């Protein structure tokens, strides 16, 4: 009988309908391949531990993600899909995942790396961060709500950039306006753009 964490059960239960079969499948594959695996929650989403970090999964509004801590040592560069947070792109159904046999092989290779004490490769840092430019319409909207302006001015540059990028990625004026209104509401409450996924 696999050892499970009730917090992971709760995470799966509150995920969207499309996500639950994906998360349950990933969980089953990991436990079958690594019976000694331990479950935990880190950064508000499920992680699987075996002599250290091994892999993790997460669900979002329209997709799931699956991540190996040492993916660069397990997979060929061209196999890694960085379209989403994990290494397998935006997973919207179980069919979007590699075959169970391949996933199992990855888990077993990840176990071997941890058995041998191999460290995860260092992440290369960006040479020069791009300049932070706050859109004029966001600045104007923030100025209309003093609480939002106060909070925004205390945010780190990365949190400010998250909101700026979100607005600039809008494809239509209507979407941009909705995002701007939502942004000001969240900022007035002191929330970052990704507050739903941050650890409480």
Automatic annotation (TrEMBL):
SUPFAM superfamilies: YdhG-like (SSF159888). It holds the Pfam family DUF1801. Gene3D superfamilies: 3.90.1150.200. This is YdhG-like domain-containing protein. The lineage of its organism: Bacteria, Pseudomonadati, Pseudomonadota, Betaproteobacteria, Burkholderiales. Residues 20-111 form the YdhG-like domain.
